[in-house]
Structure formats: C-alpha cells, structure tokens
Specification:
Elements lengths: L15 H27 L8 H12 L7 H22 L5 H7 L10 H26 L3 H4 L7 H9 L18
Helix pairs in contact: 1-3, 1-5
Length: about 180
C-alpha cells in the first residue's frame, strides 16, 4: 500500500511562502525547546525574579559583556532569535508596526522572568503545533512531512518531561475525586 501523499493524482506541495513559514516555525520550535531545557536546567523556569533577566539583557545587549553564567547568555540569544523569527514569520510579507505591537507581549522577550518566559514559550510552541496541523489540512501535505527534521520537537520534549503521550481520544477508566 502506498503511503499517504503518494496515492494517485497530483502530489501535494507547499507554496514557496508556506515552505518558508514552515521552515521558520520549525527552527523557532527547536530553539524554543533548547530554551525550555536551559530554563529547566538552571532552575530559572521556577524563578519570578524580575531583576535577573533584565540585568542579563543589559550586560549582553548594552555593555556587550558575557554574563558570568554562559547558560544565561545563551538564553538571552535564544530568546531574541525566537522573537525575531516568529515576528517575521507571523507578519509574513506585510510587516506592520500595529500588528507587531499587538503580537510582542505574546512572544518570548529577553526581559521576562524565567517563569514567565517558560510559560510564554510553552504557549508559543503549542501554537506552532496548531499552525502545522492547519497547514497540513490546507495544503494536503501529510503532517509528518511538516515535522521538525533536525533538533528536538516540542512533542519529543513533552514526552520526555511528562512521560508517554496519551491520545486525546482515550477516556480514563475512572477518576479520583477530591476525597481520594
């Protein structure tokens, strides 16, 4: 039996714009997973200290000095890269200052506390996954062809952190109430 996408008729293909968008989203996803791993490894994903990320941003961007903790400097770079990549990708061929101002609070920022950055990054990665599903439906290209090709996907990251993924269609055999 032929795999999906290879069965008779015209082969499904992405337009050049869709290819660029998907490539950018995949790159932002793998970098986002690295960022989440860095936040978790340093314990910053639990820190709501507003001073530390702002100090690191000031050191890196204004003074051009490497922070004493190289991981924090790496997080600053990854955060800026993800923000720039997603801003460009989401605005497409029609950049607009108005749209950029609306989107920026919902994208990873260098000045966010570690806890806030982790929460925003998880939301962004969920949205990237939804966009991939939509693109597969619209373009008739199998979702597996749109998946991350290099680096760790968000799905792989979640499976490692949370255990084996359970399909949404599986219903629990029983539930435990507040009294046990």
């Amino acid at each position: 039996e032929l795999p999906e996408g290879m069965k008779g008729g015209k082969p499904a293909r992405l337009t050049q714009t869709q290819q660029t968008t998907q490539s950018d989203l995949n790159t932002a996803e793998t970098t986002g997973v690295k960022l989440l791993e860095q936040l978790h490894a340093t314990g910053m994903d639990k820190s709501n200290d507003p001073g530390d990320p702002r100090w690191q941003k000031f050191l890196v961007n204004q003074l051009k000095v490497a922070p004493t903790d190289a991981a924090k400097g790496g997080m600053q770079w990854n955060t800026a890269f993800i923000n720039a990549t997603l801003s460009r990708t989401l605005m497409g061929g029609r950049p607009s200052q108005y749209i950029a101002e609306l989107m920026q609070p919902h994208l990873p920022q260098q000045g966010m506390s570690g806890k806030q950055l982790a929460a925003v990054m998880r939301n962004v990665l969920d949205t990237i996954d939804s966009k991939r599903t939509e693109l597969a439906g619209v373009s008739k290209v199998p979702r597996s062809q749109l998946a991350v090709k290099s680096g760790k996907s968000y799905e792989q990251y979640r499976t490692e952190r949370e255990g084996v993924a359970v399909p949404a269609s599986v219903k629990p055999m029983y539930t435990v109430g507040p009294n046990g």
